[in-house]
Amino acid sequence: MKIRAFTLAEVLITLGIIGIVAALTLPALIQRNNNQVVEARLKKFYSSMNQAIIRAEADYGDKKYWFEDLSAVDEDGNINSSKVEEWFNKYFTPYIKIIKIEQNADGTFIVYFPDGSALELVVNTTTRNWDFYPGNIQKCKQKEKNNEKVTGICRFTFLFNPAIKSNSGPSSWTYHLNKGIEPFKTDWDGDIRKLYDHGQFGCNAAAGRNYCTAIIQMNGWKIPNDYPFKVAY
């Protein structure tokens, strides 16, 4: 009676084929998972922050009256973000779930959320600009420092300026006037292609990439097939 079995060569060939298939498909699966996590956390952040604004308005009135354009840098050039923290704790902290708030010596004001994401207020200049990190903020900052942001993106820009606290004219803030937290759309003229190729704010490697968040929002909080960067968290 003969017992048929795989030879060592057949086993090695089979394992080699499995390895090749895994090598070809695994990156795509990882990227698909990254996309889904980033999409979900962006949408959740946008919804929860704007719900917080609505609840704050119920207690303090229209947002355009309690919004403040604050900086952590005083007139003498010293960094002190205590006013920023006081403002945020009054109008946002009671209405959202957070783990902790961190203030660094450089004026960075970071809010950590339970799902692992984080919000950074760019308070060395103004509280208008909000950077959202779907995942580990320090890991993302290190990637940007290492210039890995050329092909990837892990930081998404939002803006809160409902009362136009700025020297720019009203037309620059069309998509932010009387609004809550919105993806950065300053100076956008409504042309979808400008979100990609705008020289200063466009979602491309040569520009500031401020419009990258708006592209995802305009696609129903789904990363479109022609998105210029691989997202990470």
Give a brief outline of the structure.
Helix content is 38%, strand content 12%. With 233 residues, it is of the alpha+beta class.
Could you explain how this protein is built, in words?
The chain has about 230 residues and is of the alpha+beta class. The chain is about 40% helix and about 10% strand. It is elongated and about 80 Å long. The mean pLDDT is about 85.
| Number of contiguous helices | 6
State which percent range the strand residues make up.
5-15%
**Percent helix among the residues?**
25-40%
Q: What average pLDDT do the residues reach?
A: 87
Please state the oligomeric state of the protein chains shown: single chain
Low-confidence parts: none
Radius of gyration: 22 Å
In N-to-C order, the SSE pattern is: HHHEEEEHEEEHHE
How many strand segments? Answer: 8
Rough outline: elongated
Domain count: the total is 1
Distance between the termini: 58 Å
Major β-sheet annotation? 6 strands, antiparallel
Structural class: alpha+beta
How do the strands line up in the largest sheet?
1-2-3-4-6-7
Blueprint (SSEs and pairs):
Elements: H1 8-60, H2 63-66, H3 82-91, E1 100-103, E2 109-112, E3 118-121, E4 129-133, H4 137-145, E5 152-153, E6 156-159, E7 182-183, H5 192-197, H6 212-218, E8 230-231
Parallel strand pairs: 5-8
Antiparallel strand pairs: 1-2, 2-3, 3-4, 4-6, 6-7
Describe the structure using short key phrases:
6-stranded antiparallel beta sheet; two-stranded parallel sheet; 233 residues; single chain; 8 strands
